[in-house]
């Protein structure tokens, strides 16, 4: 006992270690280092008390341990993960991944001066979004466009500009909440508008809109219900009919289509997703959608519509606060440019590439990944599963897919030096283990099995995944 107390007394004070040269000369934030030093000392104290350690390392050793700990924690910010969830547009995992060219365009705009608002030919100030506007016109035949931070910002800008101080008529079936606190009624009041709800949750007819219009009505709004679906006895008014009503009464018709597919995604068996060009053709005066959902570009909100309205929006001081930055505009331009060639779009834009994978392709990918894992001594099997588009796009729609499922024996678990428990290793434990990797591998648990859906996994990550899963599931003799 006497001995332990002597040892404990030798543990340096936090302040003394913080003055050690190893710590003072390192580029890590001070509060992170202090925390690491405290944790290292606490751990040492515990080890001495339990008899696991019998000596106190010198200050330099302790300082180095603390620096290493702080450095490993400093990696924990935004970093790459592998998405094995099968959810193509996963809001927690950053939604759409950019194409390589779009990512490069963002990088170049960020790392050097660029023509954000400069017309090189004329040598004078230019338009911030002319480069994307021309593509949007080509793709959708819109009159003009505006790019803001996200679709929530787009709706905010549209309603504040077009309908501020007036009434906005919306069907009760469309008063939705989209993930992350975007509630249609709240946005409407935030814009200084009064909500006029019409119809019922499941049925709204054109007469309901007609009856709600009065001298204070400044807009008819249609919102894609995105993340939920009412089935059964339902009725709603299409944009065509609504646009005709708006036109006859001189009231702008606005549609928030949500996902903003720019190609006909019905070929991927995705039905019921409005696409921008159709909404405009059907007569909507203003249409808005996200850039990082089915479009497959960077996070932004895209507004398309009549010059009359977009000009008003561009003059609204809110636009200055909501407009998109140079990296976003560069990535969006590069994404839209590919849409000129639908085949190239499907090849290069990850969201479209993932949607277009056939069941055969998915099965052979799963088998290939499986082989790579087995070749490294890991245990895994191929399982058929269902992926989803995600992000409120087409709720209820499931795309047939294939997953790999790591198989773990108790033996393998102790070999991979995780907490080995009695009986078989739970899927939860394997899931946690893969999530702890330097590049976390995120899967989904279904019927007590961990699944990694190959639809959302990039082929360039197969080697890493194979190595990690072999490590977690492999028998020691194979390692
Ligand atoms: C996703 C969605 C939004 C919000 O878009 P963000 O780009 O995330 O701001 C708004 N409306 C609808 C209908 C949506 O589906």
Bound molecule types? pyridoxal-5'-phosphate
Largest sheet: 7 strands, mixed
- The chain-level mean pLDDT equals 91
Shape by Cα distribution: globular
The name of the CATH architecture of the largest domain is: 3-Layer(aba) Sandwich
Unreliable segments of 5+ consecutive residues: 417-422
The CATH topology of the largest domain comes to: Aspartate Aminotransferase, domain 2
Structural class by helix and strand composition: alpha/beta
SS summary, helix count: 21
* Number of structural domains: 3
Strand order of the largest sheet: 4-12-11-10-9-5-8
- CATH class of the largest domain equals Alpha Beta
Cα distance spanning the termini: 43 Å
Strand residue percentage: 15-25%
What's the CATH H-level superfamily name of the largest domain? Type I PLP-dependent aspartate aminotransferase-like (Major domain)
Helix % is 40-55%
Q: Specify Rg, calculated over alpha carbons.
A: 28 Å
How many distinct beta strands? Answer: 17
């Amino acid at each position: 006992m006497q001995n332990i107390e002597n040892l404990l007394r030798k543990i340096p004070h936090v302040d003394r270690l913080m003055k050690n040269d190893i710590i003072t000369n390192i580029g890590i934030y001070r509060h992170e280092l202090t925390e690491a030093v405290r944790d290292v000392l606490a751990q040492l104290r515990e080890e001495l008390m339990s008899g696991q350690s019998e000596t106190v390392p010198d200050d330099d050793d302790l300082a180095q341990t603390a620096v290493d700990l702080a450095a490993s924690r400093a990696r924990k910010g935004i970093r790459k993960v592998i998405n094995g969830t099968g959810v193509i547009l996963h809001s927690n995992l950053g939604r759409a991944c950019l194409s390589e060219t779009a990512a490069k365009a963002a990088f170049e705009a960020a790392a050097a001066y660029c023509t954000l608002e400069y017309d090189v030919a004329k040598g004078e100030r230019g338009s911030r979004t002319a480069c994307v506007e021309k593509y949007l016109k080509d793709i959708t035949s819109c009159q003009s466009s505006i790019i803001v931070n996200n679709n929530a910002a787009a709706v905010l800008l549209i309603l504040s500009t077009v309908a501020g101080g007036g009434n906005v008529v919306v069907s009760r079936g469309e008063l939705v909440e989209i993930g992350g606190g975007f509630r249609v009624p709240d946005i409407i009041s935030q814009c200084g508008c009064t909500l006029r709800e019409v119809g019922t949750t499941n049925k709204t007819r054109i007469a309901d809109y007609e009856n709600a219009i009065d001298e204070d009505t400044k807009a008819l709004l249609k919102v894609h219900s995105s993340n939920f679906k009412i089935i059964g006895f339902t009725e709603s008014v299409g944009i065509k009919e609504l646009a005709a009503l708006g036109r006859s009464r001189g009231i702008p018709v606005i549609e928030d289509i949500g996902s903003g597919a720019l190609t006909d995604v019905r070929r991927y068996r995705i039905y019921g997703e409005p696409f921008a060009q159709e909404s405009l053709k059907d007569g909507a005066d203003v249409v808005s959608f996200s850039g990082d959902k089915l479009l497959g570009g960077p996070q932004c909100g895209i507004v398309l519509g009549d010059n009359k309205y977009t000009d008003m929006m561009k003059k609204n001081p809110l636009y200055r606060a909501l407009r998109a930055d140079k990296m976003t505009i560069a990535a969006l331009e590069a994404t839209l440019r590919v849409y000129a060639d639908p085949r190239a779009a499907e090849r290069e834009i990850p969201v479209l590439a993932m949607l277009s994978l056939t069941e055969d392709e998915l099965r052979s990918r799963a088998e290939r990944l499986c082989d790579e894992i087995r070749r490294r001594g890991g245990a895994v099997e191929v399982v058929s599963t269902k992926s989803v588009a995600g992000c409120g796009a087409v709720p209820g729609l499931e795309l047939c897919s294939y997953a790999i499922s790591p198989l773990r024996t108790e033996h393998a678990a102790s070999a991979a030096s995780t907490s080995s428990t009695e009986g078989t290793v739970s899927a939860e434990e394997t899931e946690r283990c893969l999530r702890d990797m330097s590049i976390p591998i995120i899967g989904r648990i279904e019927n007590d099995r961990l699944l990694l859906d190959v639809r959302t996994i990039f082929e360039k990550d197969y080697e890493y995944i194979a190595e990690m899963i072999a490590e977690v599931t492999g028998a020691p003799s194979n390692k």
